[in-house]
Every structure is written in structure tokens, then in C-alpha cells.
């Protein structure tokens, strides 16, 4: 996918063109066994159905399906996948040292126009012989995916690259909402937002319903695209996600938008709110 000796394009330029973080190129992940990869795929599928399953419940569920597995192994795999169960009550866990947790700003707020609020989240992408991570930035009002990136690490770099792309194409939002993942509480992420004057909003810990629209996006993506393929390489995964995102934004009817695709509604609402300004056309 990346050619280090390319006569024209640097490694950094190739990573940018492929929408992957440069740090991902230099990172060599520890491989997981085929058994663990199969378990991770099953955990991912089940978590979409029961996002309230913690380690103990997931372990019991897998044992009921005749998998020989203990809680320690399930905990490690769920942590590796970045999965966090929802809770009925606020979790009292404290953020990592030095990482500030910002209040949730969307409760009771009427989001009535594009770019009033964006949301970002990360999900796990299973492959035939490994896995990757996908981050997406969505416009809360129109459900349009504004930018996305794939990485083989959970470093904050690929999230910031997606944020920079979205801001470059559409301008900054008024509010950015995320969960409390370390990528989004990092100084690099929050400082970038603060320097643009964006108000930072974060879900309650373990409350995925605070970011429900992106969670629904992941469910749709996985059932309509990811689980239908067994990608061998990162470039195959990226091409598959790119094609589906293009379909989702521009052609897939959305029930919350009167059957219109998100990109159509986004453009219409932008034109309604800014009738005297030329709207940038983004493929």
C-alpha cells in the first residue's frame, strides 16, 4: 500500500492520499491468533446488539455459545477493540491524569442547522487476518459523514487528521461532541478545537446514547458493508469503506431525513441558511 522508495511521493504524502495516519506506517502491531480474531469478530457483532454487555456478561454469552474463554481474555480483547459498555447510572471512573473531561452540551439542545454540532467516534474494523480502527466525523443535524480515517493504532493522530479535513472542507462547527476516549481527551485534540473557538462536548462515561447518531452509523456500516467482506489488506478495507461512505452520503435514503441522502439535505440546509454565499462542492 505504501512504497517507501517511491521516486515522487514521500511516505507522508502517500499516507495523506490513502487517508491513513503516518504513525500507522511505522507501527508494527502484535498479531492476534486466528482464534482471537474470530472471537473479536463475534464480540463486535454481539456488542452491536447488546451494547450494555460488560466483560462478565460478554464472557457468559460466549460460553453459552460453547466458546472456552475466561473474563481476563474477554477484558483484554474488548479493551483492544475499544469497546465500553453503556451504564444505567453515571460511571464514577476518573479520567486519565492530565486529561480534562468536558461537560455534555447537547442535552436539551435543538440542533437546527448544519455545522451547529458535529460528533466523532471510533469503531473496530475486523479483517481476515487482523483488524483496523475507523474514526468518522458526522454533522449532527444532517447525519452527513464529513471526514473519516483508518488506522492500525488508537493514537490520536488519525482523529486529528480527520478533524482537519472536515474543517478544511466545511469550516469549524460550533460544538464538537465525542466520548471520553483518550484520543478525544488528549491535548492535541482539545487544543485544536479550542484554537478554532469550537465548544467541546463529551458524553457521560459509558453512555453511548449521548452520541447515538454515530453509533447508528457504525451499526449500519457493519451490517451493510464490513460483515459482508473479509478484507485481506488495509487498502482493501479503505476502498470498501470509501465506497460505502460515498453511497451513504449521496445515495442511501435516510429515514430521519424523509428518505433523502444526508449530503442532499446538508447542501439544501446550507443554501437555506446561507443563500448569498456560494457553497463549496465536495465530492
From TrEMBL:
Domain named Integrase catalytic: residues: 110-269
GO biological process, one term: DNA integration
Domain of life: Bacteria
Protein name as it appears in the record: Putative transposase
GO MF term set: nucleic acid binding
Record-linked PROSITE patterns: INTEGRASE
Coiled-coil features, chain-numbered ranges: none
Pfam families named among the record's database cross-references: HTH_21, rve
PANTHER family found in the cross-reference section: TRANSPOSASE INSF FOR INSERTION SEQUENCE IS3B-RELATED, TRANSPOSASE INSO FOR INSERTION SEQUENCE ELEMENT IS911B-RELATED
Amino acid at each position: 500500500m505504501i512504497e517507501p522508495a517511491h521516486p515522487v511521493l514521500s511516505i507522508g504524502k502517500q499516507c495523506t492520499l490513502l487517508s491513513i495516519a503516518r504513525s500507522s506506517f511505522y507501527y508494527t502491531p502484535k498479531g492476534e491468533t486466528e482464534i482471537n480474531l474470530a472471537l473479536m469478530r463475534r464480540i463486535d457483532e454481539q456488542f452491536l446488539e447488546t451494547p450494555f454487555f460488560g466483560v462478565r456478561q460478554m464472557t457468559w454469552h460466549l460460553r453459552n455459545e460453547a466458546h472456552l474463554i475466561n473474563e481476563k481474555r474477554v477484558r483484554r480483547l474488548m479493551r483492544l477493540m475499544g469497546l465500553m459498555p453503556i451504564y444505567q447510572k453515571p460511571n464514577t471512573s476518573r479520567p486519565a491524569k492530565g486529561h480534562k473531561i468536558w461537560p455534555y452540551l447537547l442535552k436539551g439542545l435543538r440542533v437546527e442547522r448544519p455545522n451547529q454540532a458535529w460528533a466523532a467516534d471510533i469503531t473496530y474494523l475486523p479483517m481476515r487476518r487482523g483488524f483496523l480502527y475507523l474514526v468518522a466525523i458526522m454533522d449532527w443535524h444532517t447525519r452527513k459523514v464529513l471526514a473519516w480515517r483508518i488506522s492500525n493504532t488508537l493514537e490520536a493522530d488519525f482523529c486529528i487528521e480527520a478533524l482537519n479535513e472536515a474543517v478544511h472542507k466545511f469550516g469549524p462547527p460550533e460544538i464538537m461532541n465525542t466520548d471520553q476516549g483518550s484520543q478525544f481527551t488528549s491535548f492535541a485534540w482539545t487544543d485544536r478545537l479550542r484554537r478554532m473557538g469550537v465548544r467541546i462536548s463529551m458524553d457521560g462515561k459509558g453512555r453511548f446514547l449521548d452520541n447515538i447518531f454515530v453509533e447508528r452509523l457504525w451499526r449500519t456500516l457493519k451490517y451493510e458493508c464490513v460483515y459482508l467482506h473479509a478484507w485481506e489488506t488495509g487498502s482493501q478495507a479503505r476502498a470498501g469503506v470509501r465506497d460505502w461512505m460515498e453511497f451513504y452520503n449521496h445515495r442511501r435514503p435516510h429515514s430521519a431525513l424523509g428518505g433523502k441522502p444526508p449530503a442532499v439535505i446538508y447542501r439544501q440546509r446550507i443554501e437555506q441558511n446561507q443563500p448569498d454565499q456560494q457553497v463549496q462542492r465536495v465530492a
